[in-house]
Amino acid sequence: MTATASSPVSFDGRFARELGEMSIPWQADEAPDPRFVVLNKPLAGELGLDPAYLRGSDGLRLLIGNLVPDGATPVAQAYTGHQFGSLAPRLGDGRALLLGELMDVEGRLRDVHLKGSGRTPFARGGDGRAVLGPMLREYIVSEAMHALGIPTTRSLAVVATGQQVQRETMQPGAVLTRVASSHLRVGSFQYARGTGDIGLLRRLADHAITRLHPAAAAARHPHLALFQAVISAQASLVAQWMLVGFVHGVMNTDNMTISGETIDYGPCAFLDAFIPATVFSSIDETGRYSYRNQPAIAEWNLTRLAESLLPLFHDEQEQAIALAQESLAGFRQQYGAAWSAGMRAKLGLAAGVEDDVAATMVDELLSILQAGRADHTAFFRSLGAAARGNTGPARSLLPDPAAFDAWVERWSAEDPDADAMDRVNPAYIPRNHLVEDALAAGTGGDLAPLGQLLAAVTNPFVERPGLERFAAAPPVEFGPYRTFCGT
Known about the structure:
Number of helices: 18
Largest sheet: 7 strands, antiparallel
Structural class: alpha+beta
Mean pLDDT: 95
Number of strands: 15
Helix content: 40-55%
């Protein structure tokens, strides 16, 4: 039986208290033999949690929901989702729980959420469990994204449960403890709208404004301002994904946050070769969520959010639709501006370089990269050396560098800032072959590769001796790469 006890910090159950219609009180399954796999000490410090306490028996049980701290009200959240374009009206946390909220050391309210904590009433045919490999993947990639400066949910801990879980084979079970500004999703608003209870929809929107976008409260039309804030957050987020070559893999509406944080690292991966049509997810047979499609899918998801919020925009539906369309029209402009600014930074171009000149340079370079299937991360990192006069590393990544030679001459004439480029072009990302090596070793009990990979990707912009293999392209025999969601 799950116990309750005093904890070193004060938890809250705000979501459960304010939006009870959108959750079901629930308890995590008891883990027979929990043990730590990895604990994020810096994040624990941000949350005001003592790592020594968390490593003790009570802290360990708190992290998997087997000890409920004072003030916490564990719930499985309800939400809807368009999954690969098809509507699933009732999804929800089938294997997850919102343990509660806590105030971090900077006074921000943060969700503490459990993934793999057992079946809930939303589980459908699932077993409610998670296996160690995918939970370690989320830990690695989410912490790498944080280090890259990209808004993301965070990983506090991975705890092995002592259970074996059936997937293709029997695998060790685990729980991921996740931290977020909020777990509100586009699907949350779809669910509230689907109930037909406009009062619930309004309370959900007001909750989102208070938690995530408080500036909207002062606007003439707060709920429209909320929608516009989500558009801005997602335009910025997806631009940042594209700039580092990140492929989310499953951009369903239940996987798009209202906060603008990246969430649910299932079949995600990073580009090796720059191939815009790249798809990693084993279940994405049509390429819906390919690298190049991510901006369009984000806009599609935001349109579903607009449909859910229409009753709050205006009493007259035609007026509401017009307001929604006007706001949605801003997505492409905001995304384009964020992406263009990011590309200028990656190329080290000064503010004085004309926009049309910069755009032409970017287009030409991307065509060169695509034609040569150049390594995305290594190539942009090597441009720092090229800006210092050493074009060799970049040329070596292209099978026919003639077009690059002509391009680099024009680019060099703009006096690119090499140091600024090194601050935005990472040397280290969670390269797919290294992630797989770390997961395989970690599942087998060897955590050394995991620790080495985390040390590289959580300080991604500073090259260090001895880490050369973390910046290297995958071996020829690696691929084609496919990822799986882990359920």
